[in-house]
Design brief:
Radius of gyration: 12 Å
Distance between the termini: 30 Å
Number of domains: 1
Strand order of the largest sheet: 1-5-4-3-2
Number of helices: 2
CATH topology: YaeB-like fold
Number of strands: 5
Structural class: alpha+beta
CATH class: Alpha Beta
CATH architecture: 2-Layer Sandwich
Order of helices and strands: EHHEEEE
CATH superfamily: RelE-like
Strand content: 25-35%
């Protein structure tokens, strides 16, 4: 199981969204941390960066897997329309 770490931006996004949505997203992230390379996850590798995205309804979770330290680093959480913008 990977340890989950959140960036400051990801934590802010979780606090600002509705509680039931935040709970669902945290649950999906925990499932992902248990089996990060499982085929049943709704995950895709992002082009142009060494990161992945997890789809949770209309929300996207952008994260990195750090295999050496066994960490799943959640970089960004946001709606599909704006999560990929820098």
């Amino acid at each position: 199981m990977y340890r989950i770490e959140y960036s400051r931006d990801a934590l802010k996004a979780l606090v600002r969204m509705p509680a039931n949505t935040a709970r669902l997203i945290r649950s999906k992230i925990e499932q992902l941390a248990a089996h990060p390379l499982g085929a049943n996850n709704n995950v895709k590798r992002l082009k142009g960066m060494d990161a992945f995205r997890l789809r949770v309804g209309d929300w996207r979770v952008v994260y990195e897997l750090r295999h050496r330290t066994v960490v799943l680093l959640v970089i960004r959480i946001g709606p599909r329309s704006s999560v990929y913008e820098d």
